[in-house]
Amino acid sequence: MLNVKGLTKRFGGLAAVNNVDADFEKGKITAIIGPNGAGKTTFFNLVAGTHKPTSGKILFQGKEINAMRADLVARLGIARTFQTTHLFENASVFDNIIVGHRLRTHSGFWDVMVNSRRLRNEEQICRKRAMEVLDFVGLADLAPRITADISQEARKRVAFALAMATDPEMVLLDEPAGGVNPDETVGLSELIKKMVVHGYTVGLIEHKMDMIMGIADKIIVLDHGEKIAEGSPAEVRSNPLVIEAYLGSEHAAA
Amino acid sequence: MKYLVQKGGWLILLLLCVAFPLVSSNDYQLYVMSLAFIWAIAASGLNLVTGFTGQLNLAHGGFMAIGAYTLGVLTVDYGVPFWIAFLLSGAVSAFIGYFVGIVSLRLKEHYFAIFTLCVGFILYLLIEKWEALTHGTSGVIGVPAPPPIGPVSFESAISQYYLVLFLLVVSLFLMHRIVTSLLGRTFIAIRNSEELAEALGINLMRNKVLSFVLSTFFAGIAGGMFAGFVRFIGPDIAHVMHTFDMITFMLVGGIGTLLGPIVGTLLVTWLTQSLQFLQDFRMIVFGPLLVLLVIFFPHGLVGSYKIWQVKRAAKRAAEAQQAGTPIQSKSRIETNASGEGVGEEARSNA
Questions:
Q1: Nearest CB to B333: which of A75, A94, A165?
Q2: How many CB pairs (< 8 A) connect A and B?
């Protein structure tokens, strides 16, 4: 689904991502792990078009998307979430989601001026889609609530819902379980699995090892911008390089 | 009935404005009110790009001046009929706005604000120095008043008042359409987070430029009406001070709300008028009032009311759920038209 070859991003002299190859298979959960500053989020930013790669190739469904603008990447079907989602705090959760489907609509300024049939139809479609995705992430009950009042976990789910409202093929999740408690993390894991069951391909950055080991089909380990290991959770867990770079102290303690 | 309750605030305000000439004691009050309406149109244009789209445009006064000078120069020097020149005042302002927009919107946040501040000053200087076109510091004198449309003439103060009020109502109607539509939601998404909006597939540049051009169109129309109403225009109208006045109107009424700039403009105008007897000392009263307002109503008067309203609605929805009556259908959810929300800018600008 998504194939990355020799991806490199330099900020001045620093190579934030250095010559990384990665393949994200359709219908699978591919996780990217690594210590802080390993280049995980930069990797997502490159794929999603937020940053332009210095060199390398990014192929999405066989189409080259390097250096494509972020909004066009989203149209092609790659949605993403951020570590922190900036929502419109003084509006309802439902209101926040509606705009997520905007990229699949075509109404422009003149539709607005004459309040065209197309505009009214598309607004209905956006509302319908918003309710569907809220239902999917289990927040249907929170839809009318004001966004400022919802919990951190609910925010994460809203971020998922927004990403799904864009009708993506693939979803990149940046630390979806950051700042939520262990029980809630389990709930979010279930949600990610549910997304895969419904045909989404998932790319995942996460620090919580329990979660990663439990749901990832494949793990890619980055350290100082370079890929140091790749494989199934079991393979990565036993890889000495990985233990040294990242899991070391944790494993020693265990 | 429910419709009436929902739109109650609007109706009351409209009725008050329609009835105002009947209770006002002299033409001067009508004049002040009409002028306030013109400023309100311009302020609500600024509100579209700043309050709803999150781009603080400090050249807004300059675009109002472009509108005013378009009408003034075309009618006085080139004998263009008033109403054609009036439409052109919006069009010319939007046309120039487009080119300023595609350049300035490449910058973000403060840089954009500083850049537009400079653009505003350049517009001011251009108007002041380009004597061949703008008559320089002596200004354009003898701008014609709005001529009659069919049987309706605009000679008396009352008829001019209603003309300006009509223009304000039409402007607000269009603005309402924009901000409550998918387009408005797109603008609001950009205001909340450009990063997130772009990840949701929104073309930032295109939408920001559209919002900018629309706001300059409103500024131009307001400027054109200003010229036809005051009958004289000088370079002072392009002064950046006017932009800051409009920002004050927005903050007082509520940035990022439809009604906010209107309420703010009327309130500040009348407050300034009623403190007239203090002359320059009125700022001693006005300044602290503004500070208090920003402290206790950071979202402005309308904005704070809207938030209270949204919170109450959300609370009721929550209580209804706890009482065991789950939301039955998707369409039941009453969304508080997102356009009516309040910008985060309110805080940072304050």
A1: A94
A2: 141
DSSP B258: S
Q: Is A247 a residue whose pLDDT tops 80?
A: no
CA distance A136 to chain B (A): 14
Which residue's entry shows tokens 């005042």? B89
A98 to chain B, any CB pair closer than 8 A? The answer is: yes
Mean pLDDT of A31-48: 88
pLDDT digits (tens, 9 = 90+) for B118-133: 999 999 999 988 888 8
Q: Are residues A132 and A249 in the same domain?
A: no
* Bridge partners, residue A22, by sequence: A4
CA dihedral B115, B116, B118, B121 (to 10 degrees): 180
Q: Are B44 and B221 in contact (CB under 8 A)?
A: no
| A chain contacts of residue B189, beta-carbon cutoff 8 Å | 88, 99, 102
The tokens of B30 are what? 């009508």
Which of A157, A185, A219 is at the close of a domain?
A157
Minimal Cβ distance to A102: which of B202, B307, B330: B202
Whether residue A162 lies inside any domain: the answer is no
Domain shared by A15 and A64, yes or no: yes
| Total count of domains within chain A | 2
CA atoms within 13 A on the CB side of A49: 26
- The reply to whether B3 falls in a domain is no
Whether residues A88 and A145 share a domain: the answer is: yes
Average pLDDT of the residues in A97-126: 90
Q: What is the pLDDT of residue B341?
A: 39
Q: Given CA atoms B199, B202, B206, B212 in this order, what sign does their dihedral have?
A: negative
Do the domain assignments include residue B129?
yes
Structural domain harbouring B195: 25-349
Domain shared by A89 and A29, yes or no: no
Domain limits for position A194: 2-77+168-253
B50 assigned to some structural domain: yes
Inter-chain contact A74–B199, Cβ cutoff 8 Å?
A: yes
On whether any CB of chain B is under 8 Å from the CB of A125, the answer is no
- Would you state the structure tokens that stand for residue A146, as one six-digit string? 């004001």
Across the interface, do A86 and B311 touch by the CB < 8 Å criterion? Answer: no
The pairing of strands B232-233 and B140-141 is antiparallel
Same structural domain for residues A101 and A132?
A: yes
pLDDT of residue B345: 36
Q: What is the CATH number of the domain that holds B47?
A: 1.10.3470
What is the pLDDT averaged over residues A15-39? Answer: 88
Among B192, B210, B299, select the one facing A109 at the smallest CB separation. B210
Q: How far apart are CA B242 and CA B124, in angstroms?
A: 11
Total domains, chain B: 1
Strand partners, A63: A60
> Cβ contacts (< 8 Å) between B177 and chain A: which residues?
112-113, 115
For chain B, report the end-to-end CA distance as a whole number of angstroms: 38
B15 within domain boundaries: no
Evaluate whether residue A163 is within a structural domain.
no
Longest Cα pair distance anywhere in chain A, in angstroms?
A: 68
Nearest CA in chain A to B307: A90
Kindly determine whether residue B181 and residue A146, on different chains, have CB atoms separated by under 8 Å.
no
**Cα atoms found within 13 Å of the Cα of residue B189, Cβ hemisphere only:** 28
- Sequence-ordered list of residues with C-beta below 8 angstroms from that of B322, at least 6 positions apart, any chain: none
